[in-house]
Design brief:
By secondary structure, this protein is α/β, with parallel strands linked by helices. The protein contains 14 helices and 19 strands. The chain has an eleven-stranded mixed β-sheet, with helices on both faces. A six-stranded parallel β-sheet has the order 6-5-4-7-8-9, with helices on both faces.
C-alpha cells in the first residue's frame, strides 16, 4: 500500500454480465478471486463496528465536461448515514463554457457557478478542488489551488509533459498541510488491495509476462456550434497537447501493472519502453494515432526478463479492458472488480481450495474464492456471483480524497489551536503522522504515484509515436 509522501472511460463495460462468459472462464480452469465486502460504514476487521463519518469537506469542481459532471454526481452520493447530510457538498463549479456550466449547475443546484477558476479559488468556503479540465491545463490550476490552500484532486495524467508534472509534484510535496491526490482510480479500489498481497505472496510463481489492453471504438472527435469551440474540444487529437491513448486511456493500466509488479522499490519500474502506432480508421487529419502498442522491459531483479505488453485502440471495442498476469504456477485475469485465477497443472496446492466451492463446466472445474469469509460461506457462495464492490472506481477514489482531506484538515487545525501555525518539524511530523494513519484506512495515489504514472504514459506515447525504444532513466522520475 502506498502513501502520498513515502511509497504509497467512464462507464466501463461490465465484465461477466452473463452466465456464458463466466462459464467460459470456468471451463478454462478459472478460479474466481473474490473479497468479502465490509458493510458500509464498518471497519474492515469488524463489520459491526461503525466508523463515524468525516467532517464535511466543501468541494469546488473545475471543469464541467462529461467527466466533471460524473464527479459531481458521485460526490452527491456521500452522505452521513444517520442524518443524510452531505459529506462532500459541491459549493462551487467552474467552466468557461456556459452550456457545460449550466448542466453542471443542475446537478449541484446549491453550488455557485463561476466562469474563472481563480474566482473559485478565492472562495474561502471551498476547502478542496477537483481538477477535471483537459490535461494541458492542469499545471496552472493545480499550482494556483495549492497556493490558495486548497486540497487538490488532479485527474491523471498530471500533465502532458514530464516537466509540468514535476512542477505539480514539487508543489504538492511542499504543501505539507494539504492533501494532493492523483486521479489513479485503482489505487483506492478495495478489490486491488485484496489482490495486491495475493500476487506479491507468490501465488503466480515466477512472473513471466503481463498483457493489458484498452479497446473502445470511438473517434474521440467532437463537434460544437463554432469552429473555435470544436478546436478546443478536440485537444486530444493534437500531439502538442495530448498524451495519446497511452496517457489519456491506459495510464490506469500502466499504474496498476507496475504497482502489482512491485513498484520502483521492488523491481516494478520498467527500464525501457518500445512502441508502434497507426491511424487505421479515423483518417480525419488528426496527428494522434488511433491504435498503439507498447512493450515495457524490466531491469535485473525479480522481474528480470518480464515483458509488459499494453495496447489500445479506438477502432474496436472487442474484449474491452483487462489485465492478464502470467506466472509459472498460475495466471490471473483482472477485469473491473473481478479476478480469476488459472492454475497450471503442476502448480502446488495453495490450501484454500480445500474449502472453496467447486463447480464443473465440461471437463474443467472452477473454484470460487471469498476472502475474509467463513469456510461455510466459501462452500455455499456461488462461483458466479456479484462483485462485493458495487461502486465505481471513481467512487472509491473520491471517498478516499474526502476522508483524507477531512482528517488532515482536522490535524492541522488541532495543532494550530494548541500550539502555533509556524512551519516547524513538530508541526510537519504531527500532520505526517495523521496522513499516514488515514491513508492506511483510505489508500490513494499521491504526487509520487501520479508523477511515476505520468512519466510512464508520456514516454510510452513518445515511443509509440516515434516507433522506437525509449530508455526510462531514473532521473525522469526524480524531483
Amino acid at each position: 500500500m502506498s502513501s502520498n509522501e513515502e511509497t504509497t472511460e467512464f462507464n466501463r463495460r461490465e465484465f461477466l454480465k452473463n452466465t456464458s462468459r463466466a462459464a467460459f472462464m470456468a471451463m478454462m480452469g478459472g478460479v474466481e478471486l473474490r473479497a468479502a465486502a465490509a458493510a458500509p460504514g464498518a471497519a474492515a476487521e469488524d463489520s459491526l463496528t461503525p466508523i463515524p463519518p468525516p467532517a464535511p469537506v466543501n468541494y469546488g469542481v473545475i471543469g464541467a465536461g462529461v467527466w466533471g459532471r460524473e464527479i459531481i454526481t458521485t460526490l452527491a452520493q456521500f452522505k452521513d448515514p444517520v442524518t443524510q447530510a452531505p459529506i462532500a457538498p459541491v459549493v462551487a463549479v467552474c467552466d468557461h463554457y456556459p452550456g457545460w456550466l449550466n448542466r453542471a449547475g443542475e446537478l449541484a443546484p446549491k453550488a455557485e457557478r463561476l466562469d474563472d477558476y481563480q474566482k473559485l479559488l478565492g472562495k474561502k468556503e471551498v476547502q478542496a478542488v477537483v481538477v477535471a479540465t483537459p490535461t494541458p491545463r492542469h499545471r496552472d490550476i493545480v499550482l494556483a489551488a495549492l497556493q490558495a490552500g486548497k486540497h487538490v484532486y488532479c485527474e491523471a495524467p498530471l500533465a502532458n509533459s514530464i516537466e509540468e508534472a514535476k512542477e505539480i509534484a514539487r508543489a504538492a510535496q511542499a504543501a505539507f498541510k494539504l492533501v494532493f491526490q492523483a486521479g489513479l482510480l485503482e489505487r483506492s479500489h478495495p478489490q486491488r488491495h485484496f489482490l495486491w498481497p495475493f500476487l506479491r505472496a507468490g501465488a503466480l510463481g515466477r512472473n513471466v509476462m503481463v498483457r493489458a489492453q484498452w479497446h473502445k471504438k470511438g473517434s474521440w472527435a467532437r463537434t460544437a456550434p463554432t469552429e473555435d469551440r470544436t478546436k478546443e474540444l478536440n485537444w486530444r487529437l493534437r500531439r502538442a497537447e495530448s498524451t495519446g491513448l497511452m496517457g489519456e486511456c491506459c495510464i490506469h493500466l500502466l499504474d496498476a501493472v507496475t504497482w502489482f509488479l512491485g513498484g520502483p522499490l521492488l523491481g516494478g519500474r520498467p527500464s525501457s519502453v518500445a512502441g508502434v502506432s497507426s491511424t487505421i480508421l479515423w483518417n480525419d487529419g488528426r496527428d494522434v494515432p488511433d491504435t498503439v502498442l507498447c512493450v515495457f522491459e524490466f531491469p535485473e531483479g525479480p522481474n528480470a526478463g518480464v515483458r509488459f505488453i499494453c495496447d489500445a485502440s479506438l477502432c474496436s471495442s472487442f474484449d474491452a479492458q483487462y489485465e492478464m498476469y502470467y506466472g509459472s504456477d498460475s495466471s490471473i485475469l483482472v477485469r473491473e472488480s473481478k479476478a480469476w485465477m488459472f492454475k497450471e497443472v503442476d502448480s502446488p496446492l495453495l490450501g484454500w481450495e480445500v474449502y472453496a466451492r467447486k463447480d464443473s463446466f465440461g471437463a474443467e472445474t472452477g473454484v470460487s474464492l471469498v476472502a475474509n469469509a467463513s469456510k461455510q460461506k466459501a462452500l455455499t457462495e456461488g462461483a458466479i456471483g456479484a462483485s462485493p464492490f458495487p461502486n465505481s472506481p471513481l467512487y472509491y477514489a473520491l471517498e478516499a480524497f474526502t476522508w483524507n482531506s477531512s482528517k488532515v484538515s482536522a490535524a492541522v487545525q488541532d495543532y494550530v489551536e494548541n500550539f502555533s501555525d509556524a512551519d516547524t518539524p513538530d508541526f510537519r511530523a504531527h500532520v505526517a503522522s495523521e496522513r499516514k494513519a488515514t491513508l492506511a484506512q483510505h489508500p490513494a495515489a499521491g504526487w509520487r504515484e501520479g508523477l511515476e504514472a505520468t512519466v510512464l504514459a508520456v514516454k510510452a506515447n513518445e515511443a509509440a509515436l516515434s516507433r522506437r525504444r525509449v530508455a526510462l532513466e531514473e532521473e525522469l522520475f526524480e524531483l
